[in-house]
Design goal:
Blueprint (H helix, E strand, L loop, with lengths): L8 H4 L22 E2 L8 E6 L14 H9 L14 H4 L2 E6 L10 H14 L3 E6 L5 H12 L3 E5 L19 H7 L9 E3 L12 E3 L1 H7 L1 H12 L4 E6 L21 H9 L6 E7 L10 H21 L3
Parallel strand pairs: 1-3, 2-3, 2-4, 4-9, 5-6, 5-8, 6-7, 8-9
Helix pairs in contact: 2-10, 4-5, 5-6, 7-8, 8-9, 9-10
The chain binds manganese (II) ion (MN) (2 copies).
């Protein structure tokens, strides 16, 4: 890159590759200043938002999550993501696709629209990093990913199991998606793991649970080991509900629960997963209206970057 100041790289950048300095406080706020584009040719990873929060059971507002995460990402977009020794944007063509469109007046049609959104991107050979939205969006995303990769290992960070029993059918609930996903064979619970849980549900549908107390007592290194042993080299979908973090680190979310992970613990665990066979990822449940000083959105943007680095570590072409 030359040293001339540039701005609005979301629309002005020449290449899909590379990290370029831009004023953190100015310009069009695509995720990490990637190009806003719907052209999937030559693209490795598509970042898109799903601004849906109709499945929320407590405080709504995660529909503003994609915008909040994009804006916060601009504060960290000027340099190579620390502490990784390579820049994922040197190896992967990443675009910001904008948001999945749907009519909130027809909530029952939204799951299919999210699935079609994912299907279009995945069938073009691109991987997805999705910004929620409440956690329900992971369910149609998993359907599309499982169609391509078969039953997936789920690595699920959350305060909640999201495997509470439901009835078969078309209920839209952000606490039961993984009950459905397990029963429908979208995920393989015997190769899946949930981290950070601290709410009561006695039926885990076969998922391994590394609850919040285990993370605090055993430490990150042992948790990393346990996750790696569970998923092996199986294709992984990684989903991060931001309420996995303690409310001190992520107040901007719909159902905060005390006793959670610190942002540092979550980053430490994610970076320890280098080498896993990651095929899809999302960060959900960011509700900026309850946030303070962008703590939550910044955590979400940083975690999303950690996921991109993980993806690049496995898939990058030198
Ligand atoms: Mn959740
Ligand atoms: Mn949760």
């Amino acid at each position: 890159m030359d040293n001339a100041p540039t701005n609005d790289q979301a629309i002005t950048r020449d290449s899909l590759y590379g990290t370029n300095a831009e004023s953190t406080y100015a310009g069009i706020t695509s995720f990490m200043r990637r190009r806003y584009s719907r052209d999937l040719r030559g693209v490795d990873v598509v970042v898109s938002g799903v601004p849906f929060d109709t499945a929320t059971s407590n405080r709504p507002g995660a529909r503003f999550g994609p915008r909040g995460i994009r804006e916060a990402s601009c504060a960290i977009a000027w340099e190579r993501h620390w502490p990784w020794t390579f820049d994922p944007f040197d190896h992967l063509a990443v675009i910001d696709y904008g948001d999945c469109a749907f009519d909130p007046g027809f909530p029952q049609s939204v799951p299919d629209e999210i699935e079609a959104h994912a299907e279009k991107i995945l069938s073009a050979g691109c991987a997805m990093l999705t910004l929620g939205g409440d956690h329900f969006i992971s369910y149609p995303l998993l359907k599309a990913h499982a169609r391509q990769h078969g039953p997936l290992s789920l690595i699920h960070f959350d305060a909640h199991s999201d495997t509470w029993p439901d009835e078969e059918g078309a209920r839209i609930d952000h606490g039961t998606m993984f009950w459905h996903a397990a029963r429908e064979g979208l995920v393989d619970p015997s190769r899946s793991v949930q981290i950070g849980l601290r709410t009561t549900n006695d039926d885990h549908q076969g998922f391994e649970v590394l609850d919040a107390r285990q993370v605090h007592r055993r430490g990150c290194a042992q948790i990393i080991e346990a996750i790696r042993a569970r998923v092996g080299d199986h294709p992984v979908y990684l989903t991060f509900d931001i309420d996995c973090l303690d409310p001190a680190f992520a107040p901007g979310t719909g159902t905060p629960v005390c006793g959670g992970l610190s942002t540092a613990q979550a980053l430490e665990i994610l970076s320890g997963l280098r080498g896993i066979n990651l095929v899809g990822m999302d960060v959900v449940e960011v509700a900026p209206a309850y946030d303070h000083a962008e703590i939550t959105s910044l955590a979400a943007a940083t975690l999303a970057m950690e996921m991109l680095c993980l993806y690049a570590a496995r898939h990058k072409v030198d």
